[in-house]
Amino acid sequence: MNKHIEQLQANIEPLRQEIINHKVYTQINDIEDLQIFMQHHIYAVWDFMSLLKALQNNLTCTQVPWTPKGSAETRYLINEIVVGEECDVDLDGNRRSHFELYLDAMEQCGADTKRINAFIEKIQSNITVKESLSLTTDDKGINQFVNGTFDVIQSEKDYLQAAVFTFGREDLIPSMFISIVNDIYQRIPSSVSVFKYYLERHIEVDGDHHSHLALEMTSSLCGDDVSKWNEVEQAVTASLKQRIKLWDSVYEAIQLKNTVSMN
């Protein structure tokens, strides 16, 4: 493996472990807790797609007239990931992006989709991401997480985008969480079958094949440029810290729900 990748992985491992072992997972005990988790996590799913499309725009030609851009190997890597994330299949074999599949899972389990749908409507009306967030949610964890991702996107530095995509994203779901969802599924399969399927697809596609492609892409874009690898470590570290704050927000929301239900 690339020596720079190995060093980066070693340096960020404490933060990764903090996320994987976050106390939020011990608080998800029923369908209501899972709904709160999903109402926050959907933003990470959405901005993951935005980061992916930023990479596609930067690494391939998405304009007409077409001209060759970058290396064919890098174009292949990012386009293969885009196909898997943007055009996967649902339980019935219909084509769905992972974001749309997650929304389906939220609707099935009774999670509130009003906030995320209002946010998407603002985006579709050409309102900036930052303003769309401020108009639809006051959750600090969500705001910091999404705005942090868009700082990376707006940097226009493809190697930073690739690194945050590779090391700060959706391979951080622990086996403990999978077990919790499976336990809820055993009790009420009709409420979480879509989410269970989403997680299974995530492990099968994102956590294995796509992660290897993303590692290749990051290595290719950074090469042996030490200054790029230093920038990458700072960006990935910031992204992981923002994920911790997002999980803190979920934990606080579940705690608030439990406090209210006891009164």
Short structural summary:
With 263 residues, this protein is mainly α. Helices cover 77% and strands 2% of the residues.
Explain what this protein looks like in three dimensions.
The protein is mostly helical and 263 residues long. 77% of the residues lie in helices and 2% in strands. It has helices at 3-20, 31-59, 72-86, 98-109, 114-124, 129-136, 140-154, 158-167, 175-187, 189-222, 226-262; strands at 88-89, 95-96. It has a two-stranded antiparallel ribbon. A hairpin with a 5-residue loop joins strand 1 (88-89) and strand 2 (95-96). The longest helix is centred in the last third of the chain and has 37 residues, at 226-262. The termini are far apart. The mean pLDDT is 91.
β-strand percent reads: under 5%
Mean pLDDT: 91
Which of globular, elongated, flat, extended, rod-shaped describes the shape?
Answer: globular
- The low-confidence runs, each spanning 5 or more residues with pLDDT under 50, are none
Number of helices: 11
What radius of gyration results from the CA coordinates?
18 Å
> What is the H/E order?
HHHEEHHHHHHHH
Q: What's the count of strands?
A: 2
The major beta sheet can be summarized as: 2 strands, antiparallel
Content-based structural category: mainly alpha
The percent range for helix content is over 70%
Determine the N-to-C terminus distance: 55 Å
**Quaternary:** single chain
Biggest β-sheet: strands ordered side by side in the sheet: 1-2
